[in-house]
């Protein structure tokens, strides 16, 4: 019996290993009557939590998947790097360099990018070099900044939110003041459709109160282990069964989409939790 159980466990691990060799492409449609007519049908690929991982040589597997989608734009929801291994940023950079030749890219920061930028001098210099190279390739970094896209008479605003380190804390999760986001990125414009790239989904209520129409997040890695009917098991803050783990959440006209992410970090495994290449189509209701 023990041998049978052991064989079944090994088979399960082998299946999970094979499943994780290639991200799952998920397609999500979000409808809104606030979306301008000219942006109806805009297709976005969302990349989150790559953590320097490569699918095949030079991420050729991932690039082919993105090309098959033919997105209008690519949005980065943070943590393409690993804070403790900044010298490996070339993996993420080479991927984004290839993609930048084909698609507009708007890059929101994750906690790993933010930590690198504020680390001791040598790490900060490496991150600056990474950021400078991205900018040179036409990639727009949104570190508490926004960009407004215009098509005919329609306007769409993309904002990258970089919250401070305590909001990623493990011992306690502080409450976010009501005016915190506005103080960082300015007021939410009521006259256009607003996309907020907010790496940490834990503050969904604040993002809703801010007025974002669509929030794109990551960070939780789908909960590492996903259990049917229960969802993700563990968050990076070491909270069991986090409320916001993966998928779609809606409240008061706002929608948050949380990517399960592409790479691995502290815990180097995924069970029932295939890496995700999220595709989002926004449509006018």
TrEMBL record:
<dbReference type="GO" id="GO:0009245">
    <property type="term" value="P:lipid A biosynthetic process"/>
</dbReference>
<dbReference type="InterPro" id="IPR051158">
    <property type="entry name" value="Metallophosphoesterase_sf"/>
</dbReference>
<dbReference type="GO" id="GO:0008758">
    <property type="term" value="F:UDP-2,3-diacylglucosamine hydrolase activity"/>
</dbReference>
<protein>
    <submittedName>
        <fullName>Phosphoesterase</fullName>
    </submittedName>
</protein>
<keyword id="KW-0479">Metal-binding</keyword>
<dbReference type="InterPro" id="IPR004843">
    <property type="entry name" value="Calcineurin-like_PHP"/>
</dbReference>
<dbReference type="Pfam" id="PF00149">
    <property type="entry name" value="Metallophos"/>
</dbReference>
<feature type="domain" description="Calcineurin-like phosphoesterase">
    <location>
        <begin position="44"/>
        <end position="222"/>
    </location>
</feature>
<dbReference type="InterPro" id="IPR029052">
    <property type="entry name" value="Metallo-depent_PP-like"/>
</dbReference>
<keyword id="KW-0378">Hydrolase</keyword>
<dbReference type="GO" id="GO:0016020">
    <property type="term" value="C:membrane"/>
</dbReference>
<dbReference type="GO" id="GO:0046872">
    <property type="term" value="F:metal ion binding"/>
</dbReference>
